[in-house]
Amino acid sequence: MDIKGKTALITGGGAGIGRATALALAARGAGHIVVADIDGAAAAETAALAQAAGSRALARAVDVTDLAALTALFAEAEAAAPLDIVFNNAGVVSGSPAFPDIPLARLLRTVQINLLAMMAGTQLAIDLFRARGARGVIVNTSSVAAFAPMTQDPAYSASKVGILNFTQACAPLGESHGIRVNAVCPGVTDTAIVKATGDGVTPAAWLAPALARVKLLTPDDIARAVIDLIEDETKAGAHTVVQNEAAA
Asked: Which of 19, 127, 142, 164 is the 20 to 30 Å CA partner of 92?
């Protein structure tokens, strides 16, 4: 897909990978970008940066686990400018304490945000595309954790496996409807989610050995992979792994 002039919606767009992707889309001439995040101020900052880069942008504070709010977001975005691209990127880790000591409510919320909201966002996008008979691209954020279970945060890795499997199951839509659903699988990336494994300031102690072994990816590294999944018309039900290099 040629991104120039297209309309995109990004969840989890207030910072990190979501913000980097919004700016990468703007750099390629996206006409309109809807930035959604549970942190409305952060979403507004990303939207302002996207506008400064040449795209029209709209910011909305949305909890993606609120189905009514998520549905309203997609409807508003579609009414403002018909969607071409959806990036379901909102995601969390379960945080401390590690499994199995984590509170049950937080364990379930990890799955609600990472997996169920992604499924809802994909379905909402597909419904809008089909209603117009339009081609479209959806990218879902999975993780390398989909391939290596995290014993300290199994809800996170299980949700990322689910994202990957769900995305792969959407592959036939590419041929039947011109709707391509793909997934990006980042390695350990320098975003707030790393610190969220611990107390929000310092990463969890169990993550320290892994951090010492690898060079952290940047949000821009992941954004480049997302752009490729959007632009490459041959990719439907595909996934791209962005792997860490070994630390020097």
From this structure: 127
